[in-house]
Each structure stands twice: as structure tokens, then as C-alpha cells.
Amino acid sequence: xxxxxxVLIVEDEKNIVDILRFNLxxxxxxxxxxxxxxxxxxxxxxxxxxxxxxxxxLPKMNGFDVCRALRDKGSSVPVIILTAREExxxxxxxxxxxxDDYITKPFSMRELIARVGANIRxxxxxxxxxxxxxxxxxxxxxxxxTDSHQVYRAGQAIDLTQREYELLTFLASHPNKVYxxxxxxxxxxxxGYVGDDARTVDVTVRRLREKIEADPANPVYILTRRGAxxxxxxxxx
Length: 237
Ligand code: CA
What we know:
- The protein is α/β, with parallel strands linked by helices.
- The chain folds into 2 domains: 6-128, Rossmann fold, CATH 3.40.50.2300; 159-232, Arc Repressor Mutant, subunit A (Orthogonal Bundle).
- Helices cover 41% and strands 20% of the residues.
- The protein has helices spanning 14-26, 37-47, 63-72, 88-96, 109-128, 162-172, 181-188, 199-212; strands at residues 6-10, 30-34, 51-55, 79-83, 101-104, 136-139, 142-145, 150-153, 156-158, 222-225, 229-232.
- Helix 2 (37-47) runs parallel beside helix 3 and helix 4 (88-96) packs parallel to helix 8 (199-212).
- It starts with 5 loop residues before the first strand and ends in a 5-residue tail after the last strand.
- Bound molecules: calcium ion (CA).
- Calcium ion binds next to loops.
- Calcium ion (CA) binds next to loops.
């Protein structure tokens, strides 16, 4: 039997932790809990969970700082931000600092469990589907090692979040094909939600460009087809 996937909940409201723990356990997950940001960061690094549910407003260290610290330390664990606010700026900030997803309180337990499952499956599939290989040139000075999920530009390793990596490899494996933001949400994010959540795609593209493009304002790899979507550009002879 496969070992249970482990979810770390970082949340200071004990009743929320309790109800999340109950529902996640019932769905077959092992659950760890931390009640402040510092403890959450420590447990994330020591316990190596498969996913983190991270509240924003936390004692000692807020959720954004926890997420940023995790990414700075090279962790690519999927992080779902739990935000009490409908603030667009919260969502954007969360994604900019490397969170994979966010969910607004009060949330439906059913949706939360679905998101947890989708984010864990996506990570597991990405790991399992990676063939053994060296870094393969993709286009220009960009190369990807699908074994180690490492991306290089001009031979220099680039630090991408799991989601940025998946967006890049998805687009790069369908060169010059334009995908709408909604299509990318479905293909790369694994669930088809639409509306203003499509903004998530824009934020991730922008971050990716900042990392892989020599001049992010004038990208050569990930291009925008105005009114249509994004595509990975490979020159055609
Ligand atoms: Ca809180």
C-alpha cells in the first residue's frame, strides 16, 4: 500500500485546524498541524510534507513570509494559501512569492479537498513522468532537465517554482500553439475554474518571464497573442 500523503496545516485558529484535520484524515491524508508561522516553517522543512495549507494571518510570522522563506530555501512543496480576504492583492502577492494556489475563507470543504488532491496529484505526476535525461535544449539558450526539473538559461540554473516549471514545460512541449488562460488553467492547474482566477495565469507568466527572459519586457520565449492567450515561441524556418 502506498504511504499516506501528508498535509501540513499552518493555521492559528484551532477550530479551523480541527475541522480540516478531520476532513483530510477522512479523505485518507496524514495531517500535521502548526499554530504559528515559525513553527509552520520549521515543520515544513523538517517533516517534508506533500502539501501545505497556509493561513496568511499568523502569529510570529505571516503566511507570505513563511512561503517566501520556504522557496528561498529551495523547497518546491505545493502551497495552498488560505486567505480570509477577498483582496485581489492578496491572491496576486501569494502567487508572486511562489504559492501554488489560494482558497478564500470561508471555503467549502469539498472544494478544499479537491484542490488538495489536484495539487498533490499534479506534483506526483510531474515526478513520475520525468524520463531519465540530461538537460535538453528547448529553444535559444534555454534547456530543461526533465529528470531533475531543472531549467537552465545560458548554462545557468534558474530557480522555478513547481507551477512555473509545469507551465513552461507544457507550453514548450506544444511550440507555437496558442493557449487561452482558461485552457492553461485546465491543462496546467488541473482544474477548470474561470473568471478572475485566470489572472493566476498572467501572474505566473510574468514571474516566469522575469526568470527565463533576458529582457522580460520584450520576451522571446513565452509570448502573448493579444486577445487569445500565450504560446511558447520557436522560430520556424
Ligand atoms: Ca489566522
